[in-house]
Design goal:
This protein is mainly beta. The chain has no helices and ten strands. The protein is elongated and about 50 Å long.
Length: 168
């Protein structure tokens, strides 16, 4: 006896994709068009900080207390970066089995790095690439985003957990 699929396979790739990603306080909206079966191309925009992000690798200016590797830990207690707004151009691969999908693309973000000086704001830009795998059901998935790029000529790697809600 054949087990019916959880959703109709014929409709799985027919529509374009729309959804929302939540990264702690940070929220983004994405839209992607079907390029060929299982492959989409899209844009994503968002705002507010990823309060659960983790700087994995940084130089002197962006090393924080929880950074794994850094050239110089001198100012780690003073350094703090909070994402304010970002834009992604990405491609998404969704295999037929549906419980897994992965985004890869280019990332531009504006961060506030004022640290403990609450009387001023200091904006800095991030340019780089990212990969964002997610697993779960068709409409709700859990995953992480790994960013690799440059902020003020300093290479950074940042990881952020996420929850994705797909509308289509």
């Amino acid at each position: 006896m054949a087990v019916p699929p959880l959703w109709p396979q014929s409709d799985f790739y027919k529509d374009n994709l729309m959804g929302i990603d939540f990264q702690a306080l940070g929220t983004s909206f994405h839209y992607a068009g079907l390029v060929k079966k299982g492959l989409y191309f899209g844009v994503e925009g968002g705002l507010l900080p990823d309060k659960l992000d983790w700087v994995l690798l940084a130089g002197r200016n962006f090393t924080q207390e929880n950074t794994i590797w850094s050239e110089d830990r001198y100012a780690e207690r003073m350094n703090d970066i909070d994402q304010l707004i970002f834009v992604h151009v990405f491609s998404r691969w969704k295999p037929k089995f549906g419980w897994f999908e992965v985004d890869a693309g280019l990332r531009y973000a504006v961060f506030d790095r004022s640290g403990y000086d609450i009387d001023s704001i200091y904006l800095t830009r991030f340019f780089g690439a990212y990969i964002k795998p997610a697993v779960g059901l068709r409409k709700v998935k859990f995953g992480a985003r790994l960013d690799c790029g440059f902020m003020e000529k300093e290479f950074l790697m940042i990881a952020s957990p996420l929850v994705r809600i797909n509308f289509k």
